[in-house]
Design brief:
Elements (H helix, E strand, L loop, with lengths): L13 E10 L5 E7 L4 E9 L2 E8 L9 E8 L4 E6 L3 E3 L7 E10 L4 E5 L3 E3 L4 E10 L4 E10 L8 E10 L2 E10 L17 E8 L17 E5 L4 E8 L2 H15 L1
Parallel strand pairs: 1-5, 4-6, 5-8, 6-9, 7-10, 8-11, 9-12, 10-12, 11-13
Antiparallel strand pairs: 1-2, 3-4, 12-15, 13-14, 15-17, 16-17
């Protein structure tokens, strides 16, 4: 088809999943759109604190080298959604070591609430993955975003992992961040970046109430830092030996940002 870019590899998967949450008119939330393709299989799993809850279930291995995956999550005005996953995402290589992409697009309307809580992303040896997370927020929207990346499975070298996080409020940039790890990434294992650690986690909280009562900067524990942003938001970054260690420190940092 004219204008369509070819896939990176003949056996690659191109798949998009979509989830939309809306206010149900009774003080709660409902899911009006839930659709998946390929390895992305969203499932309605009840509610969490009055908000709708959707869990991503892996219908097949992915992303494999060359795959192009995308997830669109939309929270309409006044709605709430918790989005999580049933298992870790494992980036795997193909025989040609082709690169794969996983693009996540989040949108939250006025007085909407979104919790983005996927299980860890694991970069297996020889895999090449570029993941982007882009969030568009209304001025009164709330976002709780928690992500953990692990470089390599047990006793193996990591693959190449590039993650990009972009957040905008009313079209204005709040956070633009790019992390690049693994073979070929400049200085990724130096003391200035990971310093020998193999897992990194981030917790981003965007809440209009932080305008009046901003979070305090600090170091809640070794390998963790709390950074208030220039807006109603705070970012916690944690380094650790594995996903379990990073998750524990992120939990310990919650009092700093709530």
């Amino acid at each position: 088809m004219a204008g369509r870019k070819p896939l990176a590899h003949p056996s690659a998967v191109c798949a998009t999943a979509r989830v939309t949450a809306v206010a149900d008119g009774r003080g709660g939330s409902a899911v009006s759109v839930i659709r998946g393709e390929g390895p992305l299989a969203p499932r309605l799993t009840g509610s969490a604190d009055g908000d709708a809850r959707v869990t991503l279930v892996g219908a097949m291995s992915g992303p494999l080298g060359g795959d192009r995956l995308a997830l669109d999550v939309r929270v309409e005005d006044g709605a709430g959604l918790r989005m999580d996953s049933a298992a870790a995402t494992l980036a795997l290589p193909n025989r040609d070591d082709a690169a794969s992409r996983y693009d996540v697009r989040l949108s939250v309307g006025e007085h909407g609430r979104l919790q983005w809580r996927p299980e860890p992303l694991i970069s297996a040896s020889r895999s090449v993955l570029r993941q982007t997370v882009h969030a568009e927020l209304a001025p009164t929207a709330r976002l709780f975003l928690r992500e953990v990346s692990v470089l390599g499975r047990s006793c193996e070298e990591p693959g190449r992992l590039t993650t990009c996080l972009s957040v905008r409020i009313s079209g204005r940039p709040l956070l633009q961040q790019r992390l690049d790890f693994g073979p070929g990434a400049l200085g990724w294992d130096s003391a200035a970046v990971l310093g020998g650690h193999r897992a990194v986690g981030q917790l981003l909280v965007v809440d209009p109430e932080l305008d009046a009562a901003p979070a305090e900067p600090g170091v809640p524990s070794p390998g963790a830092v709390v950074t208030p942003l220039a807006g109603p938001a705070v970012l916690v970054t944690v380094l650790g030996e594995d996903a379990l260690a990073v998750s524990r420190v992120l939990n310990e940092a919650l009092p700093w940002v709530s």
